[in-house]
Amino acid sequence: MPLFCLASRTAEEPKRPHCLCVAALRLSSPVISERGKVSIAGRVKNREKDLEQEVERFGKIHERLPCALRTGFKNLILRAGPRFLPIAIFPQNSAKLDSEIWLANSMLHPRQPNQSLRAVVLGAGDRRPEILEQIESLRPVIGRAAEIVEEDLHFEKGLFAPLNEPPDANFAIVLGGDGSILRAARYMRLHQLPVLGVNLGKLGFLADTQPLELPDALSKIIDGQFELVSHLMMRCRVFQGERVTHDETGLNELAVLSGPPFSMQYIDLYVDGHLATSYSCDGLIVSTPVGSTAHNLSAGGPILRKDLEAFVISPINPHTLTVRPVVDAADRVFELVVRKPGTTTSAVLDGQVLTTLGTCDRVRIERAEPVFRTIQVSGQDYYRTLREKLGWRGDFKLNHEI
What we know:
Blueprint: E1 3-8, E2 20-26, E3 31-34, E4 37-40, E5 43-44, H1 48-57, E6 69-72, E7 75-78, E8 87-90, E9 118-123, H2 130-145, E10 147-152, E11 171-176, H3 178-188, E12 195-199, H4 214-222, E13 226-231, E14 234-240, E15 243-250, E16 253-257, E17 265-271, E18 274-281, E19 283-287, H5 295-298, E20 310-316, E21 326-329, E22 334-339, E23 346-349, E24 352-356, E25 361-367, E26 372-377, H6 382-390
Parallel strand pairs: 1-8, 9-10, 9-11, 11-12
Antiparallel strand pairs: 1-2, 3-4, 4-5, 6-7, 7-8, 13-26, 14-15, 14-25, 16-19, 16-23, 17-18, 17-22, 19-20, 20-21, 22-25, 23-24
Helix pairs in contact: 2-4
């Protein structure tokens, strides 16, 4: 049976290619991880000698590892040959072991993929009927690489509802465009699975795998040729006095927008309970790095790399020349108060109206507990996506290049 080693570098022996291992386990055992140790069927092994004896028993793979080294998100993976599972090496300062070892408990042998990977397939078939046709052609492709444990092509089954047991899956395949990705993030609530987005829409900034590329992407996931990229999510609560009237989680942005008669809005911004500034504008956007390329970008805000831990506050058509977008740390708490709101002034979260706002309402925005994660297979690159999807360039495009 394959052996999987969780390892951590130490300052005493930084040159050892296989590092000092924290624990070894067989994949038939459940994995319950904590910082610096792994529980294996009620037992914890944390001594190097114990581990080396285990490794020696399974072919002495710690003695001669190939030089191919791939950097992943908060981990390094060494391929130990076709007979063994990869060895994952977690840096000593890794903050979340549990969020990065989802493949450890699932990816058995690459030659038996549909017994190792378990996928949930999601899509917005209620809004885009063509997705229901696409899934018929994509289901066999997915089935050859992973077991499909659940499907919800209308976001209506409540698979991740608070009272339900979440699906026993390793990752989610989301069919659609970026809007479907946003719906999937809200749908999964506190049980965020890593997402592979398959673009059936137009832009595909988040859903950056094309249908024809899906077989190759799944093959790379099986072979460990991918990275998990974590994305900041926001928690948005609306208060009336001390009472919370709405509490939702979003991935892109929270926008305060005016409706008819479309008069100017006067919005106070508080940061950690202190008044930061007051805006005279048509609206105000508080965006995550993922959302910085959406409404925020159209309003003149900056692009934030999607794995940054920050929020950007961008006014829409501010009525003063000195007001500019502001980037602040994600550990701050932001509150928006609209003075003299109109009857249709609304708080809009990821394109969905959260609620209309009254005079006494406060909108509080802060870092959400869950983290949204995307699977980025090798060959995908953030700046390449900016160039190709958003037309972002640093030079002029000549006529013969058009």
